[in-house]
Amino acid sequence: MSVKIGNIDLGEFPLLLAPMEDVSDPPFRYVCKQGGADMMYTEFISSEGLIRSAAKSKAKLDIFEYERPIGIQIFGSDIESMREATEIATLAGPDLMDINYGCPVKNVACRGAGSALLQDIDKMVKMTEAVVKATHLPVTVKTRLGWDDNTKNIEEVAERLQDIGIQALTIHGRTRAQLYKGEADWTLIREIKRNPRIKIPIFGNGDIDSPEKAANWRLEYGVDGMMIGRAAIGYPWIFREVKHFFQTGEHLAGPTLDERVEACRTHFIKSIEWKGPKVGVFEMRRHYANYFKGLPDFKPYRTQLVKEENIDTIYAILDEISDKYANISPINEMA
Ligand SMILES: Cc1cc2nc3c(=O)[nH]c(=O)nc-3n(C[C@H](O)[C@H](O)[C@H](O)COP(=O)(O)O)c2cc1C
């Protein structure tokens, strides 16, 4: 059965690209879309930043036609600011608005935003209601199981947010206290799915990093779709590999070396296009190693790539990588 959010038809069991700060920008989203992501989100955007028209926050509103369906994710601690930010973000023309109630990092959660709202469900409900009323777009929410082991209040959160009009909920199977440690536990996510009161799509998130895990957890936890974050960094093929495994029970061959170089080059080109040469070159540095994980003796190339400032030289290094490793059989990170 197709999963629907408002008028957006995501097909059966959609795979979503997770919002990731400093990662999920348009260049990264471009390669993930090519890799088969069914829906994507911007990285989270500060509501205060949007209201102040801070250039950094405004730039994060950039979305492109080929990215659809795409959601803009916002966060904040003040209800009025979130309402205003929703109006501003809606004008950027996304397909939906998403609220972040999951971010655990100190300078977000300790300022009353992100996962901090898990400690004040009444305020979370009011904030969400304000966002829902401020836009004609569907509103979705991304959150965690709860604040800590003693307050896993996701069931109350799911019911109350559904009641005030959110149209899908993504749950990361960790508490705020866990940060990114330990294994994600999807047991409570299954409970939410089994709750007969819950009608909206429930997406599971946390630790999906292989086609087998995706298939096993799909079966075990009965979610409507999955959101994938870290496993897509440097490996946008995760989406098509998971889908292929769902359809056939067999592994799609991993990307060839040429495909790796090509995806990295595309990411680089898009970075320069969108960020300009200086920032584009600089911010691409954090991605190179991820595209070439598992290649023997890659370190010298990495060292060159993360130092080089000249765009043509970077292209030349990528060509050299292509030549040097041409005879290496494809390495499938996900296998
Ligand atoms: C570098 C990084 C940045 C992140 N930034 C965001 C963010 O902006 N908004 C958000 O909702 N979650 C953010 N997250 C959390 C991810 O969306 C996701 O919930 C988490 O990584 C677990 O999924 P995974 O195991 O598939 O990576 C971030 C995670 C990482 C690793």
From TrEMBL:
<dbReference type="GO" id="GO:0000049">
    <property type="term" value="F:tRNA binding"/>
</dbReference>
<comment type="function">
    <text>Catalyzes the synthesis of 5,6-dihydrouridine (D), a modified base found in the D-loop of most tRNAs, via the reduction of the C5-C6 double bond in target uridines.</text>
</comment>
<dbReference type="InterPro" id="IPR018517">
    <property type="entry name" value="tRNA_hU_synthase_CS"/>
</dbReference>
<dbReference type="InterPro" id="IPR035587">
    <property type="entry name" value="DUS-like_FMN-bd"/>
</dbReference>
<protein>
    <recommendedName>
        <fullName>tRNA-dihydrouridine synthase</fullName>
        <ecNumber>1.3.1.-</ecNumber>
    </recommendedName>
</protein>
<dbReference type="InterPro" id="IPR013785">
    <property type="entry name" value="Aldolase_TIM"/>
</dbReference>
<keyword id="KW-0694">RNA-binding</keyword>
<keyword id="KW-0819">tRNA processing</keyword>
<keyword id="KW-0285">Flavoprotein</keyword>
<keyword id="KW-0547">Nucleotide-binding</keyword>
<comment type="similarity">
    <text>Belongs to the dus family.</text>
</comment>
<feature type="active site" description="Proton donor">
    <location>
        <position position="103"/>
    </location>
</feature>
<dbReference type="InterPro" id="IPR024036">
    <property type="entry name" value="tRNA-dHydroUridine_Synthase_C"/>
</dbReference>
<dbReference type="GO" id="GO:0017150">
    <property type="term" value="F:tRNA dihydrouridine synthase activity"/>
</dbReference>
<dbReference type="Pfam" id="PF01207">
    <property type="entry name" value="Dus"/>
</dbReference>
<keyword id="KW-0288">FMN</keyword>
<feature type="binding site">
    <location>
        <position position="142"/>
    </location>
    <ligand>
        <name>FMN</name>
    </ligand>
</feature>
<feature type="binding site">
    <location>
        <position position="73"/>
    </location>
    <ligand>
        <name>FMN</name>
    </ligand>
</feature>
<keyword id="KW-0560">Oxidoreductase</keyword>
<feature type="binding site">
    <location>
        <position position="172"/>
    </location>
    <ligand>
        <name>FMN</name>
    </ligand>
</feature>
<feature type="domain" description="DUS-like FMN-binding">
    <location>
        <begin position="16"/>
        <end position="307"/>
    </location>
</feature>
<dbReference type="InterPro" id="IPR004652">
    <property type="entry name" value="DusB-like"/>
</dbReference>
<keyword id="KW-0820">tRNA-binding</keyword>
<feature type="binding site">
    <location>
        <begin position="229"/>
        <end position="230"/>
    </location>
    <ligand>
        <name>FMN</name>
    </ligand>
</feature>
<keyword id="KW-0521">NADP</keyword>
<dbReference type="InterPro" id="IPR001269">
    <property type="entry name" value="DUS_fam"/>
</dbReference>
<dbReference type="GO" id="GO:0050660">
    <property type="term" value="F:flavin adenine dinucleotide binding"/>
</dbReference>
